[in-house]
Amino acid sequence: MLSALVRALYTAVLCAGAPLRSASARWRAITDRRAWGDYLARTAHYAEPALSGNVVWLDIGEDSDVAVAPRLVQALRERLPQMRLVITLRSQAHRNALRLLPREGDSRLWLPIDTPLAVRRFLRHHRPSVGVVLDGLPRPNLMAAARRLRVPMVLANARAHDARAHDARSQGPFGASLLLRTAMRRFALVLSQTGRDAMVLRRSGGVTVDVCGSLRLDFMPSPKLVARGIEWRQSLTREVVLAADTHAGEEAQLIELWRRHQAPRPLLVIAPNDAARYDEVAALVEHAGLWQARRSGWRGHPPPDVARADVWLGDLPGEMPLYYAMSDVALLGGSFEPNGGHNVVEAAGCGCPLIMGPHTLRVAGEAEQSLAARASLRVTDLAQGVEQALSLADDPMRNAWVERALGFSAQHRGAAERMADRIVRVMGSEAAVV
Fold first, then answer.
1. So what's the pLDDT on residue 109?
2. Residue 194: how many CB atoms within 10 A of its CB?
3. 3-state SS class at 33
């Protein structure tokens, strides 16, 4: 009864904002044609006919899951060759999920606003055989509608962040934590990354929780990019240090530390996390008086003058495996400022030892497993990270780090297959829909 009252209040707040959202969308549509179409999609008004056949609906809950979702999609397609895929996105950052749709007839659209009418229209239009949420908080009205319409829901690649779990406990039985627990109980199945995640998720309301591993640990780098990175490394006559997925605040400090290092310097490769900041980072390097080369400035093999630069700026998206494969050691961006860190497995899959800072909340499970396997090490700040990177890049024992990294990556693969098997079983189980 209490949960129904809380959800009613939550719904009232959402519905009260509907006129304002509509007016805002109409106003923005004057200059941006996409704005009105986005609004219609978010309110589940569709001009296109629904997909026919066996429809699998995949909701990308976190920005970081855009990169790992293709593994799960591939595993599902192997088991369900005729499936039609509907992908829902929650933010602008997810728009590049278009690459998950290699087949004609699949669909990509916004996840509807969590009002009862919108979510019912969405589910009745697409008629999915199963809904799969990738590591995102469940939406209460959507979960309730899925239960009424007998659509089995699966939470996949699920994590229980320390902060999120603490918040749920500290809020007691009311408010957001009550909505979360009620929505969690409506999942037919929760597929967690680790046993520790599973314990917290069960306390949060997950009825059936299986441990399947992490899709991030299932990472398989592009052989073509790895081969190119190895080729580039062999052409260089000095060590290479990569700063991967860096954030604002990290680059300025890193560049200053690099400027102080006496020549001849190792090559520093900076690959910012946000493509919109490439020019900003280039300006920081220029201001420091370092000789830089931008990856977008050449094709094929790096020309001789590029090879002599102090800094390479990785300003072509999608080439991170290349940078890891050509580097002797990498610094994990997002972990030296309180941003939660980034994918630690990508480095391991490319055989690159990794140095991470203290802030890895977003990838806590993978980070601890990597540290335990001695595929990476943790430092207290960026200054210590640079010191350790320079030492490890020139360490005769570096090959042992490489072997441990590759072994760690190989040991933890298979999460996508395990998740796909369980999702297919849920689709075929009448008992799964409660």
1. 86
2. 20
3. helix
- Cβ atoms of residues 82 and 54 within 8 Å: yes
Q: d(Cα 168, Cα 178) in Å, to the nearest integer?
A: 8
Retrieve residue 189's tokens: 């199945």
What's the rounded Cα separation, in Å, for the pair 40 and 112? 9
Characterize the bridge pairing of strands 55-60 and 84-89: parallel
pLDDT digits (tens, 9 = 90+) for 337-385: 999 998 898 999 999 999 999 999 888 888 998 999 999 999 999 999 9
Give the span between the Cα atoms of 124 and 344, in whole angstroms. Answer: 40
Residues of the chain with pLDDT under 50: 2, 162-175, 430-434
Task: State pTM to two decimals.
Answer: 0.71
Which residues, at least 6 apart from 4, have a Cβ–Cβ distance to it below 8 Å?
A: none
The pair of three-digit structure tokens given for residue 107, joined into one six-digit string: 């669909």
Burial class (CB in 10 A: 0-12, 13-18, 19+), 317: exposed
Q: What is the DSSP string of 213-251?
A: --SGGG----HHHHHHHHHHHHH-SS-EEEEEEE-TTHH
> What's the CA angle centered on 46, arms 42 and 47, to 5 degrees?
145
The whole-angstrom separation of Cα 419 and Cα 425 is 10
Distance between terminal CA atoms of the chain?
19
Q: Read off φ and ψ for residue 266, nearest 5 degrees.
A: -65, 165
pLDDT of residue 272: 95
**pLDDT value of position 324:** 97
Of the candidates 391, 332, 388, 390, which has an alpha carbon nearest to the alpha carbon of residue 362?
332
Q: What is the pLDDT of residue 383?
A: 96
Residue identified by tokens 């039985």 is 173
Per-residue confidence (pLDDT) for residue 432, from 0 to 100 = 39
